[in-house]
Specification:
Number of helices: 25
Distance between the termini: 36 Å
Helix content: 40-55%
CATH class of one domain: Alpha Beta
CATH superfamily of one domain: Glutaredoxin
Shape: globular
Strand order of the largest sheet: 1-3-2-4-5
Structural class: alpha+beta
Largest sheet: 5 strands, mixed
Low-confidence stretches: 1-20
CATH architecture of one domain: 3-Layer(aba) Sandwich
Strand content: 5-15%
Mean pLDDT: 93
């Protein structure tokens, strides 16, 4: 039997096992059916496929999707545009939608004085990046929901994030903002033009990090290490104050020090310091509430500095990137507890986020429907309720021994154990995080038995609760990340079934995320139950992450078809995104002429820089090439890419941690 066929059989077997416990997902289709049955009037978003846009299809706001219809209407009616950007699993997006976009007074103002446009940032990250830059410049910080006002040239002249509907306690409300913007638009158009011109000029310059002919500082790794160390929380790990996010770029940089120490690429002192920072951080995350202690998987970030209280949405990319972080650290410190986190997280995504065709859905919502103590639905949603427990409920579900142990192990309290609760949403509720007493203490066999039994009972009970809504679109880049995660783990643990899971994703990508007629990738796919998917042109991140996954699969299984496909995608990537002058990649194509600019960035955000992943792929292509001439071509292209970003990296090296991690591992 050929190796590829064997892997496919393994893939089919693991896929069949996963289907044995099929979960009934709650999706936007359920919401649409409910809204239609209630007699509400639909708006123009009803024909869209994005779950986020569909969540607003029954708002009284006359929403438009991004496109010429909206732009032409604004010009014809001489109105400014109100641009609202978010995503379907965003808690504060839901809050603003309920408070403002479902409110008749706010809707009337928007419909009278503005043309309102909705954008799904996951569907169109290129649009999001433009107006996020404006929001950060104007507002001082960014986030979602993003609220931006545009002129007829799509230039931003005011931007912020969440607004309450009405002004209270000194906080400006959306109603007042809309009235002020309308007055300004009518009476002071010259002021709006001046602001829009200035903001657009500044964000356009900031969008390009490239300067030709730069050279990385000879001690760039030491400078980056110093910045990372200065930002490190020595008590609880992580690299910021609250809110605290996982930092996959920094994780890769520190892990690269640990992995290469034996090769004398970095000093033993730096390797030890990197390993210590990773150990503290990964241990704190694994024991905190940011990690789902019952079912596995990571929430997006922690609202506190101790990793205890998360923002409860679960993103596919978080699972993939965290698996890779723990997997890479395991190479330097092979403890069973890290393997356990890896397998639990991969088990979670296979069970709760895999589509029937083998691709992986993008996210689970932060919010779900409240129930009373008898389990009756309230009709109202709140953040985190799917994951939280009252002490009395735990006491009822578990044996006395199980409850007594769980109470100590997870720091359960009668009046709740959540102390970071500014919105007063979590009164008397408990989240599971491991108590200090047990963090570094091995459990007895009896305690392990109580814990396993309690988890089984509580998972069973939790699955009966109203589920968080699933965003059922499949995003190419995030599935590429997961291909890498499965493949890396399959090598680390010599587990061919994990390689089978990676191959299942690649099969899905071939069938649903790739246009074979023009050899182009698509950004995403979603089964709309009408036989139609929804497709957008892929961005740079989609290409580089799928190529990265293909290269990992090739190294895990040595099937050359995946290397060949990776090469074909890389060539198309060069055609669509490469800036020949600098050697860096634009992050979007030229297909949308309405975008103010195409960015070229090397700094990591919630996700590592796409240009850094492109660099990693180039280094791997060079290493895997059998011909010296090919190795030189890839190596030269990689060197030119690094050179183009070197000047800005020298100014802030830790922000380009993923690129530096790639270069350490050369």
């Amino acid at each position: 039997m050929k190796l590829a066929h064997f892997f496919c059989l393994l893939c089919l077997f693991s896929f069949t096992v996963a289907l044995a416990e099929e979960i009934k997902h709650l999706t936007v289709n359920d919401y649409l059916q409910h809204e239609k049955a209630s007699g509400k009037k639909e708006n123009q978003l009803i024909g869209e496929s994005s779950p986020y846009l569909l969540q607003h299809a029954y708002n009284p706001v006359n929403w438009y999707a991004w496109g010429e219809d909206a732009f032409e209407k604004a010009r014809k009616e001489k109105k400014p545009m109100f641009l609202s950007i978010g995503y379907s699993t965003c808690h504060w997006c839901h809050v603003m939608a309920h408070e403002s976009f479902e409110d008749e007074k706010i809707a009337a103002l928007l419909n009278k004085h503005f043309v309102s446009i909705k954008v799904d940032r996951e569907q169109r990250p290129d649009i999001d990046s433009v107006y996020m830059a404006a929001t950060q410049l104007i507002n001082g910080s960014g986030g979602w929901p993003m609220t931006v006002f545009l002129d007829h040239d799509l230039r931003p002249f005011h931007a912020a994030t969440y607004y309450p509907p009405f002004s209270t306690d000194g906080r400006l409300g959306l109603q007042e903002v809309l009235l002020k913007i309308h007055e300004l638009w009518v009476k002071q158009p010259e002021t709006i033009n001046e602001v829009a011109t200035s903001v657009t000029a500044r964000i356009s310059v900031m969008a390009d990090d490239t300067i030709e002919g730069g050279i990385l500082s000879h001690d760039i790794n030491r400078l980056a290490m110093q910045q990372v160390t200065d930002s490190f929380d020595e008590d609880m790990g992580g690299f910021s104050a609250a809110p605290k996010f996982p930092r996959p770029g920094i994780f890769s940089f520190l892990n690269s020090f640990s992995i290469t120490a034996a090769d004398h690429v970095v000093s033993r002192a730096d390797a030890n310091a990197a390993q210590k920072m990773m150990r503290i951080t990964l241990d704190a995350m694994a024991s905190g509430g940011i990690y789902d202690q019952l079912a596995g998987g990571f929430h997006r970030y922690s609202v506190d500095a101790d990793w205890q209280v998360p923002h409860f949405e679960k993103m596919l990319y978080s699972q993939a990137l965290m698996v890779m972080a723990y997997n890479d650290y395991y190479e330097a410190d092979p403890q069973e507890k890290y393997k356990k986190i890896i397998y639990q997280t991969l088990g979670f995504v296979k069970k709760e986020m895999r589509s029937p065709d083998g691709g992986f859905y993008s996210a689970l919502d932060a919010d779900s429907e409240r129930t009373d103590e008898a389990g009756n639905k309230s009709g109202k949603k709140a953040e985190g309720v799917y994951y939280l427990w009252r002490q009395a409920e735990l006491k009822q579900l578990l044996t006395k021994d199980e409850f007594d142990f769980i109470k100590k192990y997870f720091h359960i309290r009668e009046h709740g154990n959540i102390f970071s609760d500014p919105q007063k949403e979590f009164t008397d509720l408990n989240i599971f995080y491991i108590d200090e007493e047990h963090k570094n203490q091995s459990l007895t066999k009896q305690q392990e038995s109580w814990l396993a039994s309690a988890k089984k009972k509580l998972n069973k009970k939790r699955r009966l609760r109203p589920r968080p809504q699933l965003d059922d679109k499949v995003i190419t880049a995030w599935n590429g990340m997961l291909v890498s995660a499965f493949s890396k783990a399959s090598i680390t643990f010599d587990d061919k079934s994990l390689l089978g899971d990676a191959l299942q994703i690649l099969s899905y990508a071939k069938n649903h995320l790739y246009d074979d007629s023009n050899k182009k990738l698509l950004r995403q796919h979603r089964d709309t139950k009408t036989g139609a998917g929804f497709y957008d042109e892929a961005i740079l991140a989609d290409y580089v992450w799928l190529v990265a996954g293909l290269l990992e699969v090739y190294e895990a299984g040595k099937d050359k078809q995946w290397l060949n496909w990776a090469m074909a995608l890389h060539e198309k990537q060069n055609e669509l995104f490469l800036d020949p002058a600098t050697g860096a990649y634009f992050e979007s194509t030229t297909s949308d002429e309405n975008l103010l600019f195409r960015s070229k960035s090397i700094f990591d955000g919630a996700l590592p820089s796409a240009n850094a992943i492109a660099l990693s792929n180039l280094r791997k292509f060079s290493r895997l090439s059998k011909k010296q001439a090919h190795r030189k071509v890839f190596s030269a292209q990689a060197d030119k890419l690094v050179s183009s970003f070197a000047t800005v990296i020298n100014q802030n090296p830790a922000s380009a941690s993923m690129l530096l991690a790639v270069e350490v591992l050369r």
